Amino acid sequence: MTKKPTGIELFAGCGGLSTGFLDAGLHVAAGFELDARAVDAYNYNHDYRGSRGFIADLNLASGAELLERAGIMRADFVIGGPPCQPFSIAGKRQGKRDIRADLIGHFIRIVDELKPSAFMLENVPNLASIDSGEFLDDVKAELRALGYKVDHRVVLAADYGVPQNRKRLVVLGVKGKRTVRFPDATHGTAERPYLSSAEAIDDLPDAGEFGETGIFNHEPTMHSDDMIERLSALEPGKRERGSYHDRLHPERPSYTLRAGSGNFSPLRPVHYKHHRVITVRESARLQGFSDDFLWPDRIPRLQQYRQVGNAVPPPMAEAFARCLAEQMGWTLDKAGLAGDPSTRPPAHIYTDDERKALRTARLRGASLGKVALSAG
Ligand SMILES: C[S@@+](CC[C@H](N)C(=O)[O-])C[C@H]1O[C@@H](n2cnc3c(N)ncnc32)[C@H](O)[C@@H]1O
């Protein structure tokens, strides 16, 4: 049996799943992802830990190609959160969705080609409702037919020490076992309560005028005077009726962070004490990322928010990695995969003056109606 396993992440985004697996001590050799800006963030945050990100269209790439690019002979585990395309007409087959026409189908295809000892597939809880549950049943049946013991659960990120009420559906598969186990909750009891928003972000200073605090990815979003007035009147834990902004409650975990789509910013929660939506750094904290995880300046801020909102919270991924390692008899190498983040090139390339000028340009665009005032 492989004691020190190596795996790959599919549909990797910026690599929240990879981060959690590396934090647990499992080596992820590579992350594959279509979006170059996500691969950029992946590499910035994982290359120094021995994981490389690659641009790949997983509709097309073969398992053998992925192994070759990752520079490994075999993947002991395959992990990933393929986007769910629940309303794709292309996916219909005799009135039912065709798994093969879906990105989840490509996850299954790659598992079939690589035959890892274990896999983890993460998705939205709604996956269980498509076609009255038949779609998920089909996914599990296909994976079982490949020789895996397969089960799924809807889990809450807060249960694993993430300051966020984020529910996700996870399908786990293991080879050569009679049962598949899911990690026990570590939080949510009287002795170890859920982490609150304030515990996660209260030590951060306000974001200043243009992000001049010296804290990475901590720039404020511009709001119109009218919006600031409305946000000032919004109580913690409540929703603003006109804009649908939710205001964080300092003593509770955050609302679910979202990714948004197209050119639209995800609707971000409002800070519980500042009258603005949360910054990328605050979002990252609420998603369980450490402050070593940085989005370089060259990645547009909308993309930074999107990558955070898309990610599997690293502490949740870490709990799953440890649980998989335990049942597979794998050795964890936490220290060996920690890396030294200070060896990276600087993430911030703009001076304060340049940052200020960019903000002014955005404001000017906004006053000309070119940029939505709350678009960040
Ligand atoms: C939900 S996100 C995954 C986030 C990741 N699990 C994490 O923890 O950070 C899904 C990703 O799939 C990517 N994607 C969509 N279509 C793809 C394709 N055909 N090939 C590769 N990646 C794709 C998207 O760009 C997106 O970043």
Protein described:
This protein is of the alpha/beta class and 376 residues long. The chain has a domain at 6-189 and 308-336: Rossmann fold (3-Layer(aba) Sandwich), CATH 3.40.50. Helices cover 30% and strands 13% of the residues. The protein is built from eleven helices and nine strands. Strands 3-2-1-4-7-9-8 form a seven-stranded mixed beta sheet, with helices on both faces. Strand 5 (92-93) and strand 6 (96-97) form a beta hairpin. The chain is globular. It starts with 5 loop residues before the first strand and ends in a 9-residue tail after the last helix. Residues 87-91 and 367-376 have low confidence and may be disordered. The site of S-adenosylmethionine has 21 residues, from helix 1.
Largest beta sheet: what is the strand line-up?
3-2-1-4-7-9-8
Tally of DSSP β-strands: 9
Broad structural category: alpha/beta
Overall spatial form = globular
Helix content: 25-40%
Number of helices: 11
Q: Spell the H/E element sequence.
A: EHEHEHEEEHEHEEHHHHHH
Distinct ligands? S-adenosylmethionine
**Which consecutive residue ranges, at least 5 long each, have pLDDT under 50?**
87-91, 367-376
If you compute it from the alpha carbons, what radius of gyration comes out, rounded to the nearest whole angstrom? 21 Å
CATH class of the domain at 6-189 and 308-336: Alpha Beta
Fourth CATH level, the homologous superfamily of the domain at 6-189 and 308-336: Vaccinia Virus protein VP39
CATH fold name of the domain at 6-189 and 308-336: Rossmann fold
CATH architecture descriptor text of the domain at 6-189 and 308-336: 3-Layer(aba) Sandwich
Which sheet architecture does the biggest sheet show?
Answer: 7 strands, mixed
Report the sheet-strand fraction.
5-15%
Mean pLDDT: 91
End-to-end span in angstroms?
A: 50 Å
